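Quick question, first post here. What does this chain look like in 3D?
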Amino acid sequence: MENTVNNAEKYFGQFCVLLAAYTRKTARLRDMADLLVKQLLDFANTENPEMRTTLKNFAEELAKIQDYRQAKVERFELKVINPLRLYETQIKQTRAEIKKFNKARNNEIKQLEKLERLRQKSPSDRHTISQAETNVQKAAVDMNRTTHQLEETIDIFQKQKLKDIQKIFSDFVTIEMVFHAKAVEVYSKAFEILENYDLERDLEDFRVKVHGVRGNVDARPINATNPSSSLPWSFATPSAQSTMQNQRQEEEEMSGEASAEEDQIEDLRETKTSRIRK
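> Answer (accepted):
Ran it through. Tokens below.
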């Protein structure tokens, strides 16, 4: 009976510590996931429309899972941790019964030893021996009654312990199954959201923005000293083209006349030189 109580105290205490740590880690995971959701929303606000919508919907699904995880933490506390903590009180009460039993047993042993000493020292003192025998009988009766009570207490304790172990871990598994079933459902939807993301639309939007910026840079006017040089030839008006062609013809005619005059001067120089030599 003492071993039963000692083992319950040892292992139930360890279960309580481990499951409490398990619950705290689950709560920390919830907190980290909440931070991830916040970061996703912040990042979404910097992206193109399709990615923004996709990330916001994805973050909402992750937030739902954290709500389920919060419910799991609360259920762990209620259905797993608290029942294990209550065993501290039950173990104390059972130990009190064992202590009472030990006291009755020690009293019975003490009365028996006293009776034995009297029989050895004073075998003729019937009155004292009779009184000692009466005390032994009372101690035995008290011992039997205490033993019976302790047996009932331990039997109830053991039965309750086994039922609680079954229920506590059944609740633990049920809570986990409910959470994971909900999580799979939400994760499936989150996966579908990511799969339906239209990458090409965002790239098209991005390229339009980039080309728009580059087009604005190329379209800036170029300052020049000659106003007419700022326009390409192909964009000149017909009248402008005609005027420029006439100017070019006049320049060519003047250039031809100048060349003919230079040829005449050169011929005169050669004739004068030949006369001098003669």
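The first helix runs from residue 2 to 44.
Helices lie at 2-44, 49-121, 126-195, 199-218, 238-277.
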